[in-house]
Specification:
This protein is an alpha/beta fold and 261 residues long. It contains eleven helices and seven strands. The strands form two sheets. Strands 3-2-1-4 form a four-stranded parallel beta sheet, sandwiched between helices. The longest helix is centred in the C-terminal third of the chain and has 18 residues. It starts with a helix and ends in a 10-residue tail after the last strand.
Length: 261
């Protein structure tokens, strides 16, 4: 297939190119497009592992790189050694991305990320870190929205990956101001994996809030669930979380663990 002209131009312009690959649909699609534009030996995929990265995302990245015969570098970005990140302030993402892009810049290649136009309308302090490290945003350069990215993923033959629900890092499930602890992130990952085995690949979140554990499930899915099904879900989560903290179920609300101001 022929890539959109502006995207093709953005991808072939750098002399070298590393794709910051999270395992989400945006960076996976960017990686596939870059491989087509530049050839598979002329890009490097770079995936950071940490307690905040779901195990399923890392497994997806490894499988993707293997299936497409693309070079993959696994790194530790080091954000858990950063006290500012661990404190979980309102701009936590800035410190996460600063560590990530700082690490990738050490490899001496131009770095690109899967940011799309829709991301620019949201509060994303990580974009400041990207600017500070001269990270490229080829989808933005090509004026592509999330819908455009998913359409491109289908055209590139990414199959079910094109329908992946949005899944930001696990630290986004921890209410602003609560310290980011690896033990809590392991619980969140385990709960979400267990829920996906029960419910399928739907949008869901396990939130660590001051009031307890909050489970959010895609609104249409939540509306279809009977009281008995909701009770079963609550019991499942209760068995996977430490005793003494309540479990609440509710419809999914984007960014509900994020406290402004």
């Amino acid at each position: 297939m022929t890539l959109p002209a502006l995207l093709h131009e953005a991808l072939i312009a750098p002399h070298t190119l590393t794709i910051a690959l999270s395992g989400g649909i945006d960076s996976l699609t960017l990686s596939a497009a870059a491989a087509q534009a530049r050839g598979p030996r002329n890009i490097t995929l770079c995936h950071a592992v940490s307690p905040a990265v779901p195990a399923a995302a890392t497994a997806r990245v490894r499988q993707f790189a293997q299936d497409h015969d693309l070079p993959l570098r696994i790194v530790d970005a080091g954000e858990f050694a950063d006290a500012s990140y661990r404190a979980n302030p309102v701009n936590r993402c800035y410190f996460c991305k600063s560590n990530l892009y700082g690490k990738l810049s050490q490899f001496g290649q131009v770095v690109a990320a899967g940011t799309n136009l829709d991301d620019l309308s949201d509060y994303r302090p990580g974009l400041q870190a990207a600017d500070e490290h001269s990270v490229l945003h080829p989808f933005v350069a090509a004026h592509m929205t999330k819908q455009d990215v998913r359409a491109l993923a289908r055209t590139l033959g990414l199959g079910d990956l094109a329908e992946l629900p949005a899944a930001p890092c696990l630290a986004s499930r921890i209410e602003t101001g609560l310290r980011v602890e690896p033990a809590d992130l392991r619980i969140i990952d385990a709960v979400e994996e267990a829920l996906r085995r029960e419910l399928g690949d739907v949008t869901l979140r396990c939130r660590h809030m001051r009031t307890g554990w909050v489970i959010e499930i895609a609104q249409d899915e939540y509306a279809r669930m009977s009281d008995a099904q909701r009770a079963d879900i609550s019991a499942l989560v209760d068995a996977l979380t430490p005793p003494g903290r309540p479990v609440t179920l509710r419809p999914y609300e984007k960014g509900s663990a994020f406290v402004h101001g």
